[in-house]
Amino acid sequence: MTSLMTALPLFPAEIPSPPRGVWEIGPVPIRAYALCIIAGIIVAIWWGDKRWQARGGRAGFVVDVAVWAVPFGLIGGRLYHVITDAHRYFGEGKNPLDALKIWDGGLGIWGAIALGGVGAWIACRRRGIPLSAFADAIAPGIVVAQAIGRLGNYFNQELYGGPTDLPWGLVIYERVDPDNPLITDRLGGVSNGVVEAVVHPTFLYELLWNLAVAAVIVWADRKLRLGHGRVFALYVAGYTLGRTWIEMMRTDPATHVFGVRVNVWVSILVFLGAVVYFVLARKRGDREPPELLRGTEPGEKAEDDDSAEAEAEPVNHGANSGTDGDEPKQE
After folding, report:
1. Labelling 38: which of 58, 66, 156, 306 has CA 20 to 30 A away?
2. Are 107 and 101 in contact (CB under 8 A)?
3. Where are the domains of the chain?
């Protein structure tokens, strides 16, 4: 038994990439990247709703917010990607219409968070609920959704690092058009078994980091009863801390500022902002009271106002007639 255990490697010799990331069902392409994004959104909404109810909010409110936040977030994520990677879509030999092909991959997390936050703010404001409280409830689900989304990069064979001989190196295969093996198709093609490189699986590094961040912020939230946006700030700080060093390992083309990838600069700045907010928000105290998270249902406020006015009428009549509306008449 001992000799058998010593013969087995502790890690696999390499991590093979999937042979393809797109499957055709009739005329409809099924893309692994899109499925991973959808799965991540579902997990974030489900877990966020559980956490929202546990903090005192109404069931189903997170779904209502998602109706606003998800479309805003997808648009924002794509805009950020296109702006920071404009060289992929604009210039000689490029097709600007490719910028609209969100199904081919390419979502910038900070654009998604920023514009998704606008959508969430609109939904929360309509119900009279603090956006910070909602952000705290949804934060762990968001970072887990990001982890699930990184599996889409794995299927697309993208966002990897430089060459490595480590036992967990990721094997990148040449992919070709299934109808014409002479045409290379890195995104929609099928592997022909030819190895192009063995690289750092930065998608996996970020996936594992994100899961660790989720565990840390859930623990801190339970231990410290964080509120007023501090859970979300801790998520942002934790995520950007890992994204900074992982981003520097990547070798895919990217926009650089002063010789450094733009996403590295963004991560550093956002990290500093999150830390400052986390510290300053401490003086606001523990979590928001549960009654503040109940908000109002559509039309509920108007009904309450009408009933309050109706209850006030008898008292006013009593005062006008010279009698005390709070005391019974003496016979």
Report:
1. 58
2. no
3. 12-290
